[in-house]
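Task card 7
Instruction: Convert sequence to structure tokens.
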Amino acid sequence: MDRKAAFEDVIRFHQHSCPGAAFGVRVAEAALSELGIETPTSSLVLRSETDTCAVDALQVLTGCTFGKRNLIHEDAGQNVFTFWERNGTQGVRIRAVPDSVVYRSEEIWALANRIEEGTASVEDEAAFATAQTDRIDAILNAPVEEILVIEKIETEAPRPKPLAPVDLCQKCGEPTSVETLHDHRGQMVCPACHLAAHGGVLPADHADHGHHPKSHRHQHGDHGHNHGHQHSHQA
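Output:
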């Protein structure tokens, strides 16, 4: 991978230059190398445990995107990314080295907070911009072992969510995937309406009351409680 050209491609998509995007370039480079892949491909599956800027770089450089459903987001607030080839039984897990340049220092966080709060001086803004530029350069040029921990794992690739037909939510009336409609007191409702019905917070002891008859889970035996409601409005 031509790292400089790759970073430029990422910035065109991401719309600004930042350390997170640079980190994503290094993760993509390492993942493709470990898996013996030279160019972005639909044959990969990525599970990302963060929603930071690095994810945009991974979409550009690995071929894993939300639209192709081979990018799975499970937000644990960690710079951890796991890659598999589709239907594979081995993967590669990549995470940032703790206390490395990948992470902001306390000084940089203080500058960023003042900028966010609108209390930063001109000198603060200049210092922050310089620090970020220095981090980008360091991340793009650091030896891989200084910024990445790379581990082979022996687990099967997660299955991307299948495409599914839609039915109308019986609360808001909006077309919703049958995979996400949920039986609430005899009505099939979307996740937002289901949450609203519980006052915005699901009870700790909330049980799964059943799935749409056309959903994958229902058709494969996970019926939950059947409230006997008839469903129509297929789109």
